[in-house]
Design goal:
- With about 260 residues, the chain is mainly beta.
- It has one domain: Beta Barrel (Thrombin, subunit H), CATH 2.40.10.120.
- The chain is built from 2 helices and 16 strands.
- The strands form 3 sheets. An 8-stranded mixed β-sheet has the order 5-4-1-2-3-9-8-16. The chain has a 6-stranded antiparallel beta barrel with strand order 10-11-12-15-14-13.
- It starts with 8 loop residues before the first strand and ends in a 7-residue tail after the last strand.
Length: about 260
């Protein structure tokens, strides 16, 4: 039996027309009957670097009994010139998380995935302590099990006070070895007493490595720290009143100081 956690995460490839651009990570989030792909906003658009894809492809399994069977599902990022994804802002600025609602009717009928739900979010912030072990599930440098189309996991620990916005931003820190391609990966904590099918808490969305601007690259190692945006932003981005608006939404979590 394959571990359900590995079926929550999909490899995301960005394209401009037929030109392949970048690789990243994403994961599935379900709210009521609606299914979403969650990734970083900078995976979908990053104007300072000139990264402007017009579609993404996600790799999904098509046979739960044989994971060697998979297909690439293409999603256009714009409809009539408007972005189809939702992204967030709060009092500190943009939040590097985006969600795309997936058309279930267009997905392979035999698709085999697992999706996080609002029940997997961590609401009692004081239960997560500094040093708590977590996992980052993704596709570092695109590396994965190419036969079974599965991601890999990296071990991490919570490296800043969970629930205290690091430097006023809507993210916390993790201490882990991560690489390009991990953008959009879920950051999860084991929760054996929760959902029997998917016994994990979804804490955050991995975004980027952090480093010191004045570091002497030749003699000093990188910090090995990463920012992960709090996953409760998903409650705002998937709320019914955001559907079809095609515009970024304001999202301020009053529980996070």
């Amino acid at each position: 039996m394959i571990e359900s956690l590995l079926l929550t995460t999909a490899r995301v490839s960005t394209f401009f027309g037929t030109q392949a651009l970048t690789g990243a990570s994403g994961f599935f989030f379900q709210r009521d009957e609606r299914l979403y792909l969650v990734t970083n906003r900078h995976v979908l658009v990053d104007r300072p670097s000139g990264h402007l894809p017009d579609r993404v492809e996600i790799e999904v399994h098509t046979d739960a009994q044989n994971l060697t069977h998979a297909t690439a599902f293409s999603v256009l990022l714009y409809r009539e010139g408007r972005a189809i994804w939702h992204q967030g802002r709060d009092s500190a600025g943009e939040i590097d998380v985006a969600v795309i609602e997936l058309d279930r009717a267009a997905l392979p009928p035999s698709m085999a995935i697992c999706a996080f739900t609002p029940a997997h979010l961590q609401h009692r912030l004081q239960e997560v302590k500094v040093g708590t072990p977590v996992l980052v599930v993704g596709f570092p440098l695109g590396f994965h099990d190419t036969l079974h189309h599965l991601p890999v996991v990296r071990q991490a620990v919570i490296a800043s006070s969970f629930g205290l916005r690091f430097q006023g931003q809507g993210y916390f820190l993790t201490d882990a070895r991560t690489h390009r391609g991990t953008s959009g990966a879920p950051v999860v904590m084991q929760h054996e007493s929760g959902d029997a099918q998917l016994p994990w808490k979804l804490l955050g969305v991995h975004s980027a490595c952090l480093d010191m601007g004045g570091r002497q690259v030749a003699v000093e190692e990188s910090l090995g720290l990463n920012c992960a945006w709090y996953a409760d932003i998903l409650l705002t981005l998937t709320a019914k009143d955001t559907q079809g608006s095609g515009a970024p939404e304001l999202a301020i979590d009053e529980n996070v100081q």
